[in-house]
């Protein structure tokens, strides 16, 4: 699975523009009074204006080069708030995924992740910077019934459960090393935070076996 576009909601386009453009240095490729679009490697990250009283909080991840985990952690830590998984510990080892990652917040309180996947063999010898974010590789969904939702997605799009992650009733993962849907039950914590997973409008454009799909996720009860 390749994720080419992720569309999310934000209560503040101006603060979101400042964070992603000025702090992280992402290229702003489209802007109106209602939306922003940033180029993130080979993918695009869209934020749409939300007028809801509640501030939407999402989880999504960026792939970074496999040899730049610590450099990425240092660079992001100078620009955003890092999220420890334990006191003063920031790099998480997902040994069953052959991956390591770190987490940080954006201006909206979204839980972002920089992840290296050693099976992708994407070493880069340039200094870490905004261009080191290779693509959006994960997007999270919070649903009432995890396994039913996953089975429906698999049926509609020909995806499958991620072979490196056992499926569970409260947490399962769809896709492969190139792109993943992270599916959590409602009101489960988004790791490694105390933020409960809630359900918000999301749109994803992705590709499986050279076929492009668009999936619009509508909020479920939370």
- Fraction in beta strands: 35-45%
- What is the correct CATH architecture? Roll
CATH class type: Alpha Beta
The major sheet is characterized as: 8 strands, mixed
N- to C-terminal separation? 28 Å
**Into which percent range does the helicity of residues fall?**
10-25%
Average pLDDT score: 97
CATH topology: 2,3-Dihydroxybiphenyl 1,2-Dioxygenase, domain 1
User: How many structural domains can be distinguished in the coordinates?
Assistant: 1
Rg over CA atoms, rounded to whole Å, is: 16 Å
How many DSSP H or I helices? 3
Would you identify the regions where 5 or more consecutive residues have pLDDT less than 50?
none
Structural class of the secondary elements?
mainly beta
- Per DSSP E runs of 2 or more residues, the count of β-strands stands at 14
User: What's the CATH H-level superfamily name?
Assistant: 2,3-Dihydroxybiphenyl 1,2-Dioxygenase, domain 1
Q: Any overview of this molecule?
A:
The protein is mainly β and 222 residues long. The chain has one domain (2-217): 2,3-Dihydroxybiphenyl 1,2-Dioxygenase, domain 1 (Roll), CATH 3.10.180.10. It is built from 3 helices and 14 strands. Strands 5, 6, 7, 8, 9, 10, 11 and 12 form an 8-stranded mixed β-sheet that branches. Strands 2-3-4-1-13-14 form a 6-stranded mixed β-sheet, covered by helices on one side. It is globular and about 40 Å long. The two termini are 28 Å apart. The model has no long low-confidence stretch (mean pLDDT 97).
């Amino acid at each position: 699975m390749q994720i080419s576009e992720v569309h999310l909601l934000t209560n503040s386009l101006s603060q979101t523009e400042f964070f992603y453009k000025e702090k992280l240095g992402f290229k702003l490729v489209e802007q109106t009074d209602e939306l922003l679009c940033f180029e993130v490697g080979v993918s695009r990250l869209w934020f749409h204006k939300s007028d809801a009283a509640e501030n939407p909080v999402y989880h999504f991840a960026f792939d970074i080069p496999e040899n730049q985990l610590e450099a990425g952690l240092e660079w992001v830590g100078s620009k955003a708030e890092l999220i420890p998984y334990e006191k003063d510990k920031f790099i998480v080892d997902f040994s069953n995924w052959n991956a390591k990652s770190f987490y940080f917040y954006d201006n909206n309180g979204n839980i972002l992740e920089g992840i290296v996947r050693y099976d992708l063999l994407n070493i880069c010898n340039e200094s870490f910077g905004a261009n080191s974010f290779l693509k959006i590789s994960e997007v999270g969904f919070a649903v009432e019934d995890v396994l039913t939702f996953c089975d429906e997605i698999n049926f509609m799009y020909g995806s499958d459960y991620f072979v490196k992650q056992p499926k569970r009733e409260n947490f399962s993962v769809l896709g492969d090393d190139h792109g993943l849907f992270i599916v959590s039950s409602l009101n489960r914590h988004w790791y490694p935070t105390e933020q409960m997973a809630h359900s918000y409008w999301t749109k994803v454009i992705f590709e499986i076996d050279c076929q492009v799909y668009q999936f619009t996720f509508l909020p479920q009860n939370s």
